[in-house]
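step 4 of 6: structure.
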Amino acid sequence: MLAFIIKRLANAVFVMLSVTFLAFVIFTAVGDPVDQMLNEQATQAQRDDLRERLGLDDPFLVQYGKFVVRAAQGDFGISFRNQQDVLTMIGERFPATFELVLVATFISLVVGVPMGVITAIRRQTWYAEAMQFISIIGVSLPSFVVGIGLILVFSVWLGWFPAFGRGETVDLGWWSTGLLTHSGRMSIVLPALSLSLFQITLVMRLVRAEMLEVLRSDFIKFARARGIPARSIHFRHALRNCLMPVVTMTAMQIGGLIAFALVTETVFQWPGMGLLFIQAVTFVDVPIMAAYLCIVALIFVVLNAIVDMTYAVIDPRLKGADA
Amino acid sequence: MNTHTPALTVEGVSKTFDVSAPWLNRVLERRPKLFVKAVADVSFTVEKGTCCSIVGESGCGKSTVARLVTGLYRTTSGNISFGTGAEGRPIRVQMIFQDPHSSVNPRWRVGDIIAEPIREMKLRDTEAETLARVRELLETVGLGADDAQKYPHEFSGGQRQRISIARALASEPELLVCDEPTSALDVSVQAQILNLMRRLQDELGLTYLFISHDLSVVRHMSDQIAVMYLGRIVEQAPVEQLFTDPQHPYSQLLLKTIPDVKNPKRRVEAQAGEPPSPLNPPSGCAFHPRCPIAMEKCKAIMPELLQADGQARVACHAVAQKE
Amino acid sequence: MRISTKMKSVALAGLSAALLATTAQAETVRWGAPRDIVSLDPYSYGDSYTINFLNHIYEGLVRYNRDLEIEPALATEWEIVSPTTWRFTLRKDVKFHDGADFTAEDVLASLERVSDETSPLKGNLPAYKSATVVDDYTIDIELNGAYPLLLNDLTNIHIFDKGWLVANNAEKPTDVSAGVEGFATFNTNGTGPFVLESRTPEAQTILTVNENWWDEPAHNLTRIEFQPISSAATRVAALLSGEVDFVDSAPVQDLGRLEQAENLTLLERTDLRTVMLGFNRRDELVAGGENPMNDLRVRQAMQMAVDMDLIQDKVMRGKSRNAGTLVAPSIPGYSEELDTPAAYDPEKAKELLAEAGYPDGFEFDFVCTNESYVNEEQFCQAIASMWSRVGLTPKLDIGPTAKQTPKRANGKADVYTIGWATLPMLDTYSILVQMLHSKEGNSGVFNWGDWSYPELDKLTQSAAVELDRDTRLQMETDALKIAKDEIIMMPLHQQPMAWAVSKGFSDFPQFPDNKPRMWYVTK
Amino acid sequence: MTDQSDPKTPSRTELFFDSDLWWSFKSHKSAVGAAIVLGFVIVAAFLAPVLSPQDPYDLAALELWNAELPPIWMEGGQMPYLLGTDVQGRDILSGILYGTRISIIIGIASVAVSLVVGIGLGLMAGYYGGWIDNVLMRIGDVLLSIPIVLVAILVSSVAQQFLSPAWREAGVAAVLVLAIAMYSWVQYARVVRAQTMVERRKEYVQASRLVGTPARRLMLKHILPNTLTPIFVAATLNFGLAILIEATLSFLGVGMPPNQPSLGTLIRVGNQYLFSGSWWIVLFPSIQLCILVVAVNMLGDWLRDALNPKLR
Amino acid sequence: MTQPILASKDHEVAIPALEVSGLSVEFPSRRGTLLAIDHVSMRIAPGEILGVVGESGAGKSITGLAVLGLLEHPGRISGGEIHVGGRRVDTLSEAELTKVRGREMGAIFQDPLTALNPLFTVGKQLVETIRLHSDMTKQAANARALELLQSVGIPAPEERLRQYPHQFSGGMRQRVVIALALAAGPRLIIADEPTTALDVSIQAQITALLRRLCDETGVGIMLVTHDMGVIAETADRVCVMYSGRVVESGPVEDVIHNPQHPYTKGLMAAIPSLHDRVETLAQIDGSMPRLNARPPGCAFHPRCPHAGPKCSAATPPLVSVGTTSAACWLQQGGCQ
């Protein structure tokens, strides 16, 4: 187990170093923040001076080295634009994005798993076919179109849910949650729905594929031959055997969802990390962009590691394998 | 059969596979490198025009021997040498595989499959000659010349095995290594293939190294038999002697437990125990935990393969004592 | 895990629209803004949107009244002691939000802070040399030279409390390069009509009324909820569903829809900002080859080829004001005589091009941004399309400001858009010195095409030190005439500004500089 | 042994029309429907220069006074603008046809690029194993740990910065292709690698090795064809995904520029007119995008099931 | 080991464990409906082992699955009747079948590695099955599971109950599968190639175990295999299948020593002998026809050395020939 952890760590470090490097290469090329930081009346001398103080004139590797050393200490510098500590800024927005992603993941599992099971065990019925068709539409609709549509229907026409923002939030220590207030819960409905639509279909398709695979396996045939009732076969034997890939994919997708949330956040003005990132891109706020990229990669790496370790704990075949 | 010129000489050949845990795990858990001795100190000779068989249960190393002889694996130690064949060059080796489904490329036409060795080894000068040779080979193995245009999936298992044989013959080998060539076939088809192989041996003067777990097939095909257990040859004898007077307790066990079709409802006394894992072989004679006549000595000392009654060579302390 | 009782309120978005209308307090304004302010520190970033918002919390020595005329604020009166020394008498009995008294020391600290070497806002007070405290309520400001526009500049220099700055180690402006956050980035202590209650960046900033404000409030607001909604469609949706009751940048194409909404009032007018095109005037075009745009006839042809009336009608929905000169009518230095938009004459344009030796036109780079000006993407395409019709080949390059600015500033654009409102100075001098003047020293920072008109330079330099207002304005007008005759820049229009306000407000003044000033709003 | 063997050898086309695949296709109504729709969309897109009343990329062809005309069946609609015009006077139908063409080209190109890279590297990693495998897979890890939207935003925004004006028009599309391909090759590489590791051990490969076939030929002629089935399915589904990603990037403003609109750009621009009454500017491109991707995904879905040996 | 497995079940000798009559199974496909099983009849008495032998594609496994009601889609029973312990099962609904499976009939499959759910311990799977078919308490079921493991010859059963399938060797796993099949004391066990995946020495252990259990508990076993040797060793009677039909059936000794049908004859001759050596094996040319290309009449006639015109015209019925029955015109008036 220890070796496993060390290997995961080494891998994570490698991935993180590469990501930071990539981030850095890209960001230094994106644009010049100085013009954004000064106003119309600033002089050329002031511009040059600021550029020098920001270290933008240093050789590339020097800039990168400084960046990595500080990033490793959790210091991504302070935002060119907002002049706040970047990590704090991202930290403030993290709960919003995380709650959105969490709710979206929850929705996708609650809706996607049963749909996947039904389409797998009732393959020929009209409703399974209908669900299949809906799922194809689900993976095909761009989430920005979905978002715009949801706002148009549920906010403007029907007025059921708010069109933007997060509603009232409650502070729990450093974490601010919108899930404890009515307005917060109302606010999360549309963005979470729009974010989860793709995910629902992904989960559903995966569950269906895995179920079909497992249902064809010998041990299911054998279980049926033992007279185990269909319900127990489907939900106790088969579903449990295909949950592992579902859990894996769900966990892996969380990283992707966090990144993908930036589209949803843009459409719904959800005050999360993605919105911050998109705005940072517009304003060439390099520290924020770099930190965002690194944090998304970090979340991804951490989730990956957790999934791997959970695997080792859950699956009896792997548990014994190391001994 | 009486020429006594060896086609193949295998001397003290061993093959070890490194199945160690990755480097980091070994360092952390202070585990040594782990090797599996798939084949240990195997020596035998196959004389020209004869058929030598290797029998044993799964995991005994017989397939590894086949792959060592053909050169698909490299030996860890020991020496494999070939006699001289036609035109004074070393004997050519080809192999026939077990699974008729995976031994031919499903996406190639039969003609191309058989022509591949001719083209790769440039055995014919022109394409027309190559095609003529392919037709000839197809007819040799009992297929039609038209079949060259078809794809493997249009053929039954037995026919595919014929294709496989034709391909092996295409490179004009003198020694054919046959790795369980009929164990995936039905009995009636098995008879066809065995007869074909016998016919080819006579017509082309082929030498066979025949690998099988099926004693009745082995008895039908071979001149010499080597019985392997856990990577070692435990008994080697001419076919008649082995079947009438097996010396090694393992050979006796095999002969006793093999179902005898001609002798129905023979209530066999099943002997307990299963073959040990090659990862963790028993000390001394590997067979001693299952051996009814095991002695103290067997647990400690590995018996050597010694000359016994008749032309047999046996690796057993009990047999050696009896001498 | 204890739930903190402090509720951070964001938008009251959770309630349905109908509920909102009845429960919202009459004195609250929920402001749906196109973007967030960048910081709570007005000196942190050269961003006029932020500075204006913070004007609700902080005040300057002088301020603009409802008619955009300068009136006393924290200073009650001033005199020019010598051409380079101004004396300000300060208002007594003014208290900061934390209760501290306002004195001349605070003014000195604030001026020093904004003029610090590292201050990004140094350029907003270019003439400042030093200041001397005469007594608690009198201060002298020393200038580098004669400078007529000091009061204009001071409208946007917010006054901090010195004691508060010192106590929180914020006497210097925040230095981004030092990698340290500034206290003033998160905290405020001004004298203004509103007090900061809370701020969550990109989500909401809440202000409440300052009960102890020195001035008689013209407003009756108790609370401002400022919420950035960057997506225009979402912003309009929020307005239509009643989730916000004021939007300060309504998309022109949605005005028709908003007009029909029963619960809304539209406030429209044209901005002070004049949007114009600049020409590359270097010897070679960006892609290489001789630069035809150094020929006046070519620039004339390019101007004539553009049908601004059609653009006004279709792209700007009739809401813009076509411009003949580079500043808006209310900017001092403006002359109505010059403000005659060029006539649309594609035939003449073709002739001129042929005459200049380009009968088949030429290819050039046309750099636009996609979010700086109202419907910029659309009018750029329309202009490019019109140019194509007279045989030119514009290569349109549209992108975000951050990407386009380096191209424009470094001469990598043959034709580019730029808008100038002369803010915060509100005087023609601003555009003369920053944009039209040759690139030398501190002048011509925005002279991106790299042209030089010595006559114009001379007029600009003279206007800078001319204390007689009429003479100065005449000089500025003369300079604008040169710019017009030479088509140094090609003026397009003053862009429209549209505010949408819910019906609940009885007074909601709109200002031509597009800055909402809530202390004039009554509900 | 040649019992019941037909002397006439069927040609490849005959084989195809006799195959289970074709049969399954014919009996799958939604697959046939999707194929017809997709064929129609693709043909229309590539005949865009012939079919569309206007060249939406030709700036000189845009007539501003025809801006925001409604579709032909509404009051104020004008020929030839069947689906109306946008704010530039650009014919929506022409925009959609050309935009679809761009979307499809970018989709196909990005799939092609990632296929070539992914298959090549996957084969090498799977066949040789060892450090080559390690290096390639670690690179894949890195790319996969940056979500695709970010990769694409970053690559395209950087590249656009460096593109010289002369190259911009072709370049933007190329950059989008690269950005999308940069992410998706990893997927193919992983599939091919896994499959290669399986195939490499199969007996037909060993038989071929025994006659001295060199590694390159083993990989290309033996292993590669047998890894293509899952790749084919993945490529179809990724084609749909690529179109979506391109649309998303264009929607976020880092994709195709408004003067060369793809479907995503049309939707982004049209979105600004959602409340102004000119709903057709956003609606028709959105519908087209959805139709296109739904059709691709339905085909891909059917293909996945049809080619899955386990589901028959 | 001495305890009987079945608590006490009166198995009436009169009622066969399995009676299949005229069973047909068809698979609709795009090229028409394939008849996988064509009028197959067989009967297994309690305590009897019936070997069903045939080459791949003969339909022997499908027969087993049809009895269990586990035919895979789109396969379906198109005719005939199946009685298990006197009760007709082919007409039962899926829900009713579920109650019969496990209780009345059990199954053993080829690959013990995949037949067990990898995520549950062996004990859990046993207890689940036991409690499903009885109203035992958890403890009682546990005790019964222990007893079962013991009876199939698994050493240290207490410990083994807590282990997962992957911790068992192949032979041991097959024993667990057998224990599971026996859990509810069924009248019939369908054993589909139970020894094919095992080594020769283990194979003998498993067949011996089956034989013993059959004798001890009176369960009827349908032993489906392609291996004539296993049949010879284990079965009481044998049923030879060819291309979906039973071509010969009878007591195992009689069929082996005195096969009536040309196919059985050929098959027996094709098996290389352990005792003597011939230069060429007797061989049946060609191979079993695919289901979609089954020749008319006797399906074997294209490969049959005795085939005459009658053989391709009509399908011979299965009739008694001495102790055995065969489906061949040769015994029914010749092939001409």
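step 5 of 6: annotate
 - The CA atoms of residues 112 and 204 of chain A lie 4 Å apart.
 - Chain A has a mean pLDDT of 79.
step 6 of 6: archive
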